[in-house]
Amino acid sequence: MRVVVAEDSVLLREGIARLLDDHGFDVVGQAGDADDLVRKVGAHKPDVAVVDIRMPPTNTDDGLRAALRIRDEHPQTGVLVLSAYVEEAYALELVAESASGLGYLLKDRVADVDGFVDAVRRVADGGSALDPEVVSRLVGRNRRDDPLAELTPREREVLELMAEGRTNAAIAERLVVTERAVEKHVTSIFGKLGLSPAPEDHRRVLAVLTFLRS
Amino acid sequence: MIGLRRALWAIGIAAVLVTIVETDLIATADFHHPERGLWVALNAVIGLSFVGVGLFAWYRRPDTRVGTLMVATGFAWLVGNFGLTDPPLLFTLGSLLNNLFVACAIHLLLAFPSGRLSSRGDRNLVIVAYVVTTLGFLPPLLAADPTYIGCTDCPQNLLLVESNPSFATTAVDILAVLGVIILAAALGRLIGRWRAATPPMRRVITPVFVAGGTLMAILIVALMLSLLRVEGSVAENIFYAALIPFGLVPFLFLAGLARARMIVGGAVTELVARIGGPLGGGELRDALARALNDPSLELAYWLPESECHVDPEGRKMEPPAPGSGRATSYVTLDGERVAVLVHDPLLLDEPELIEAVGAAAALALEKERLEAELRAKIGELRESRARLLSIELAERGRLERDLHDGAQQRLVSLALDLRLARGAVREQPEQAERLLDGAAKELEHALGELRELARGIHPAVLSDRGLDPALEALARRAPLPVEISARLGERVAKPVELAAYFVVSEALTNIAKYAHASRAVVRVGRENGRVIVEVADDGVGGADPSRGTGLRGLADRVSALGGRLDVDSGTGSGTTVIARIPCE
């Protein structure tokens, strides 16, 4: 799998690149600012770009803008955005109409090497990876007449894992239940929330996020 | 006013008619009073001057009752003199009410100049005087037969039941004693009131009080002489001496009115001359105090923007409430309130003076008001700057503590764990693994804390995306449902965005802590070049911006940008915090 890494801190960028390289990725390009990133993605057409939100030239949300541009211009390239802080608005902005090939993770997650590599791989494959903090913020948000209140605690767990972009198999493994049991939970959740069942994982993420953001 | 005018005309005409009839009756009475001619003149002059001046005062100042009381005194005088006429009914009535005018005079003097009796003691005294001079004369009249004292020409006393000269004499003596007591008490009250009066009040009351006091003193002497049965020309004529100050009362009152008007004119002329040139600090107040002859005068200016009064130095002040012993009069210019004069309540008896002085000084007052407004603003700015500084210091202190107690401690323990793991890695790999796991956890916590700290200092989304997304993030993080019902829809200057953000953030924190609210609504908009931020909840209310540093600090943040923060928080009706921040 071919990756471009964009991060203005050289230390972190090299670290991420080495880590991905160690895990069998082919790091085809490294970028220190947003413009460089867009150029390198255009040149290399990688499977996935790992992008820091805060980057030169303006040091605000240049990375996010670049990510949106990449999703628009190179739909085949997955984008995994890294951020020093949780900002659900940014995640939702990225997801917009499709959660396919999209990730939004806290920078800290890089330290959890296996989880991080798995997320990069999922995004590169056209799946999704949303940070658990983003999801729990969305789920935990105060609503009036909250339909989430009807979910059982286990269903809530399944919902959050679903929103993070995990497959049924991954959810089953995490919760130590059978995939069959997870499927039953998912059906029940969609029923309770009034959502129509979506077969593909990234569509499922979009449906759940659309529900959560409303 | 027309109705009052007609009524006053009717009263005047009635007084004239009564006087004409009475003049004729006294002049033609069979009963030969030795000074019949003098009494015809005294009756008409004193009676009509009281009624006439009283009607004038009544018309000019219907709010005070001095005019009414003067008219009543005039009529009492006229009625009493029916005792000098022949028709038995009028003679008896006149004899009965012969001294009523004295009670009316006491009432008038004690109530001067407002027309209202100020104390319960005064009211009781006046009631006793009325009772004694009306019902009090009933007993002697029941027993007094004029023929017995050798008055063969005298008309018939209709009230006579049985002639009993000694009873009648005793009754009259008792009345004389009562009269002395009442008059002495009234005289004492007059002196007391004069001594307690402020200089401007004394100017008004002195002539009338001197005349009234003289009247009472002479009447006391006259009654004493009759009680002591002193005979002679002094005893016989002293009553006439009493009539001189009595008759002068209306004229003195009239002179006082004329003098007051002259004083108003003089005071205004002098005031205009004094405030024509440039005025130093306090000179305007001094000039006004002089013009109003009230050294205790204070000035307060109205600041419409902050809706409060300030003194000339720009310090906030509250004009005294009614009944606090000080009176207030407003000065307006083009219908706008400019200043408040806080003065001696007795000046209210001279509304023309206050009005004329206020009108003459309005422009100068407006100029000084603007200066006071400026001073108030500067003072406010200085205070809020100092508070902002101390808030910033406190904030830095808090950050230092948070870093020190939080992330720094965690990193220290992390360093320790790593060292221990390094030592254990060969001999006790399991132990090393546990230590490393622990270190990773510590690190995660430290990162989380740093993230929250950074957000508290300055949320990135605010500078990246502006107020609306930042407020949405705040709303999502709030521990209660928050609806954003109106959005700004555009970027404004960063300091304005930051201030608006902190208003919402602090307000939501307060709501979560104190309001017991079920929900909150945030509205942001732009209006007349200002960003309006409103946060309302449905909680218990009762928030007080003067208590606690949260709202105070917000107000300072907002006012540092030239805006203002209002908190509307009635008990039980929720709290609404509104910030208006100029953004141009």
Molecular structure report:
The complex is a heterodimer of chains A (214) and B (584). Chain A is 52% helix and 14% strand. Chain A has 214 residues and is of the alpha/beta class. A 6-stranded parallel beta sheet of chain A has the order 2-1-3-4-5-6, with helices on both faces. Chain B is built from 17 helices and 10 strands. Chain B is elongated. The mean pLDDT of chain B is 85. Chains A and B meet through α4 of A and α13, α14 and α15 of B.
Order of adjacent strands in the largest pleated sheet of chain B: 3-2-1-5-4
Low-confidence stretches of chain B: none
- How many beta strands in the DSSP annotation of chain B? 10
From the helix content, strand content and strand pairing of chain A, which structural class follows? alpha/beta
| Mean pLDDT metric of chain A | 89
What is the typical, i.e. mean, pLDDT of chain B? 85
What would the principal axes of the Cα set say about the shape of chain A? globular
The residue ranges of chain A in which pLDDT falls below 50 over 5 or more consecutive positions are none
N-to-C CA distance of chain B: 55 Å
Number of strands of chain A: 6
User: N-to-C terminal Cα separation of chain A, in Å?
Assistant: 36 Å
Strand residues, percent of chain A: 5-15%
Shape of chain B: elongated
Helix content of chain A: 40-55%
Quote the beta fraction of chain B.
5-15%
Which two chains touch over the largest interface?
A-B, 20 and 24 residues
**What string, H for helix and E for strand, traces the elements of chain B in order?**
HHHHHHHHHHHEEEEEHHHHEHEEHEE
Task: Classify the secondary structure makeup of chain B into a structural class.
Answer: alpha+beta
Helical fraction of chain B equals: 55-70%
Radius of gyration computed on alpha carbons of chain A: 17 Å
